[in-house]
Write a structure and sequence with these properties.
The protein is of the alpha/beta class. The chain contains 16 helices and twelve strands.
């Protein structure tokens, strides 16, 4: 007999899942790789001919899958710019899986999708004139924004590129040498070409140099290349550096180029009044992106693109009509049931048709915390980076590689007696590996001015002051032990 699927009693089922997740977040557990043989053998089974039933499936989920999950929700995880969601947006996302499994039709979730985008734009200082659309994250959000930029650039020359295709005109994008590599991927997908992304040199603070940008654009224009867009980064993923947005935006507009701000990580940083002046010029942006799944603690898979004119997105990404989607042609005002119209037609504003109601989780965290609650979280994370920087400065065998602008700080162990940069790179890489194996501290590494850096990034809402206790002391102790063990 085939197993009966679980179709009811969601409350009891969610309660079991919630209890297992509470335990997962609070228990002291080893890294899943250390016990990989056990959970791998338990899960690597052939496709079942007959289902085992709901109870056995739930038991396997709660006993095997959940306990061997990722460490990104641990208080000491400061590696990637992503974290496990906090409780309220996680609950909102879970509710949306059933009540609003997609973002369309005349429902509360469709309204909240748009409302949360308006709130998010206001929170990040973008202004009411910027309208948005959600997608799966910064990679897709940048693609959507630069797709709008490409459409606009060709429209200025009398061509509908989304309808008629690229005509061989040489194009270029301009971004700092510290820009996120998804910009190159967007250039490739859009037919601009990865090699046509001009990497603008940076200054001593790793910010785009406006003089170098001006020179590169002027050279391209003289050669007949169309400057499609300039990308200013509001918080690089490497170090948190913020490009000089006003100077960069003014240069872009002077040359007839679109000005895009990649704020996937750092745009909410403007809520910290100590660094707000660095966002001067944000109002010049023609488009901007932010990932709520980074600093706002909503579930992974939530990015937002904002543009001055959302109709431009429609022209760039509209689909050809489909008979089975006829309700989207109806007026929302005339709808007599939720299925008589599609609500805001997000499918025509980006690259996704079927997509979850991501705005419910964003709405939930903004409703829960408000502007000041989010600002307090941002300031706290920035303070964590400053605390680590202070401890690094105070220790003779630690070297600060970047002053923290936002919540990222880069440093290295450097004993300073006959160890060259190549040896220090290897030593610090091994040091971070040992931190991951045997401590609760999980920073990542990056390269700063050619040398390998230890890079904690604080966006984790579960991190506390106590979670930082002993971090730099442990780095020094591990470094000392590695130096002492050298032949």
């Amino acid at each position: 007999m085939p197993a009966t699927p679980l179709t009811g009693d969601l409350g009891a089922t969610y309660a079991r899942v919630g209890a297992a997740l509470d335990l997962f977040l609070t228990e002291d557990r080893p890294d899943p790789v250390t016990r990989r043989a056990g959970w791998t053998s338990a899960l690597e089974q052939p496709l079942p001919e007959h289902g085992v039933g709901s109870d056995a499936t739930m038991a396997e989920l709660l006993d095997v899958v959940v306990p061997n999950g990722t460490r990104v929700s641990d208080p000491g995880f400061w590696g990637w710019i992503v974290t496990g969601p906090s409780t309220v947006p996680a609950a909102a996302a879970a509710a949306a899986l059933i009540a609003a499994p997609h973002r369309y039709s005349i429902t509360a979730s469709n309204l909240v999708e748009d409302l949360s985008l308006r709130w998010l734009a206001e929170l990040c200082g973008l202004g009411a004139h910027m309208r948005g659309v959600y997608s799966s994250g910064g990679s897709t959000a940048n693609l959507v924004a630069l797709g709008a930029a490409r459409q606009w650039a060709f429209e200025q020359r009398g061509r509908d590129v989304a309808r008629d295709g690229v005509d061989g005109t040489p194009l270029a994008l301009y971004a700092s040498a510290e820009v996120h590599h998804t910009i190159q991927r967007s250039a490739g997908v859009l037919g601009i070409g990865r090699a046509q992304v001009r990497m603008v040199p940076v200054d001593a603070d790793l910010r785009m140099r406006p003089d170098a940008l001006e020179e590169l654009i002027a050279r391209d224009v003289a050669d007949g290349v169309v400057p499609v867009a300039v990308i200013g980064t509001a918080g690089t993923t490497n170090t948190g550096a913020i490009d000089p947005l006003r100077a960069v935006g003014e240069i872009a507009h002077r040359h007839g180029a679109w000005f895009h701000v990649d704020g996937a990580y750092g745009l909410p940083g403007s809520l910290d009044e100590r660094v707000r002046p660095l966002y001067d010029g944000l109002e010049l942006a023609d488009s901007a992106i932010v990932d709520p799944h980074k600093w706002l603690g909503v579930p992974v898979g939530t990015g937002a693109t904002f543009v001055r004119d959302r109709e431009l997105l429609r022209r760039a990404f509209t689909q050809e009509p489909a008979d089975y989607l006829a309700p989207q042609e109806s007026s929302d005002a005339d709808a007599q049931t939720s299925l008589d119209a599609m609500g805001v037609p997000y499918a025509d504003l980006g690259v996704e048709l079927t997509a979850p109601a991501r705005g419910v989780a964003v709405w939930a965290v903004l409703r829960e915390l408000g502007r000041e609650g989010v600002a307090a979280r941002i300031r706290q994370d920035d303070d964590f980076a400053r605390r680590v920087a202070d401890e690094v400065r105070a220790h003779p065998r630690l070297e600060l590689l970047t002053e923290p602008t936002l919540s990222i700080v880069c440093f290295r162990y450097a004993p300073g007696h006959g160890v060259d940069d190549d040896e220090l790179d290897a030593l610090n890489a091994e040091l971070v590996h040992r931190l991951h194996i045997s401590t609760p501290y999980v920073p990542s590494t990056t390269r700063v001015r050619g040398v390998l850096a230890i890079r904690p990034c604080f966006v984790n809402s579960r991190t506390t002051d106590e979670a930082l206790d002993g971090f730099t002391d442990t780095v020094v102790a591990f470094g000392d032990a590695l130096i002492a063990a050298r032949p």
